[in-house]
Amino acid sequence: MSFWQRITLIPRQWVYSLVWLAVIIPLIFPVSFKISTTPEAQKLYDTVEAIPDSSVVMLTFDLWPNALAETEPMTRTALHHLFRKNCKIVTVTTIPLGGPSLAERVTREMATQYGKVYGTDFVNLGYRANYVSVLKGMGSSIEMIYPTDNSGTILSELPLMQKVKSYDDIAMIFVVADNGIIDTWVSIVNAQYGKTIVAGVTSVMAPKLYSYYGTGQLSGLLGGMKGAAEYEQLVGKPSLAVIGMGIQSLVHFLLIAMIIFGNLGYFMMRRAKKGEGA
Amino acid sequence: MSFMEAFQIWLMAFFTLAIFSFLYRDNPVYRFAEHLFAGLSAGYYVALYMDTILYQQLWIPMSTSGEWWLIFPGFLGILMFTRLMPKFSWLARFGLAFVMGTTAGIAIMAELHGKVLYAIRGTIADQVSGGQVNYVLAAIVVIGVTTTLLYFYFSKEHRGVLGGAARVGIWFIMISFGASFGYTVMGRVSLLIGRVYFLYSDWIGSLSKIF
After folding, report:
1. Which of A66, A70, A129 is the closest to B52 by Cβ?
2. Alpha-carbon gap, residue A202 to A210, rounded angstroms
3. Does residue A20 belong to the interface with chain B, where contact is any CB pair within 8 Å?
4. Which ipTM did the prediction report?
5. Which residues 213-272 of chain A have a CB within 8 Å of chain B?
6. pLDDT tens by residue, B21-64
7. What pTM did the predictor assign?
8. Closest by alpha carbon to B144, among B109, B179, B187?
9. Is B106–A132 a contact, with Cβ atoms under 8 angstroms apart?
């Protein structure tokens, strides 16, 4: 059996094992590569910087638990950035599974670091069913859609929510999402209410959303772990995403090598078969 | 670290490894984890919809605020279940008609005002504002959008000029698919990194705290 035949017959378990090793080894012995900043991430950072300190910002946790590796670093960095500017934060989610509990856990952890008080500096509104109605309804009255916060407290009892009645009282919306909900935020909240929206999304979602960035409907965009790492660097809080990008790069090198060898093997075998035929 | 925290981490680690065991081959541990996940999700959603829709959006407003008019949408919702009875299944159309009508009303506005108009403007007007390089990029975008749309024009056979333009469109579509695929691979690798990081830092880390 020739070398190229062997290459094309490698069992898939070996390939998976190689990928696992490419993840585990740099985790134990960290590697780092330069992370360049894309204009989309820079624009997002600049947009957040441009809002006046102490503004009210809506941060969304439109995430399922399975995409946390990409999205959780974005939410944490956004909270660093916003709390540092002394912004008041209203968190919402359109995802029933994972979104509300993640918003609760992450915002409270970050609030403790910055000495922020629930009800005054931040509020977690949690989840309400029928996201289209929720997004549209908040344009008229947040209280109508969310009579209570995530833990059942009546909204009028929370000092922050006494001042925030609708999108009119919100300076900017920071959407962190791993699904198509971003379409609705753009087409309803940006287009119909004119709210400034910046977004952090998973890699799978990112290609589609560049068109929204191009049209100015999104005032900044973070794509996947790379976007999260860029944002961490810009905010000056390198963390999980920056660590992950070193590993990510090594796995990509491995995958590219395997794609090249796999294709070379295919073409070499095809040439050999043609030779036998002649 | 409390016993419950440690127990949760170990449970998460077990199910993470159970799902990854499929990479070797299909096995009972993987199937157990898969079935448990499907069962839990189904149960969770039943409880979720009961709570967030029937209780929070129907029963509470009716019983506490006296919004008894909600009985009508509630009744339309019940009619949806007549699909289960062939003799009365036609009644479900009333509820469906209402859902279709409201959805179309909201969607048409959102799609047209929020997407189509912006996309048309973004294809040409926004591209040509800027330096000379932008004119070249704008031309590429316009050619790409036009030829891609022509590829999806099926009312005429793709021959002659239309066929040539459609073939150019295919190239743009392929480049777009390639970019999406690249991002998807990056996303999947990120998820793997996330899980391995959990196993390394939380699970292995919990051993040092326990022992």
Report:
1. A129
2. 13
3. yes
4. 0.87
5. 214-217, 223-226, 240, 243-244, 247-248, 251-252, 255
6. 999 999 999 999 999 999 999 999 899 889 888 998 899 889 98
7. 0.89
8. B179
9. yes
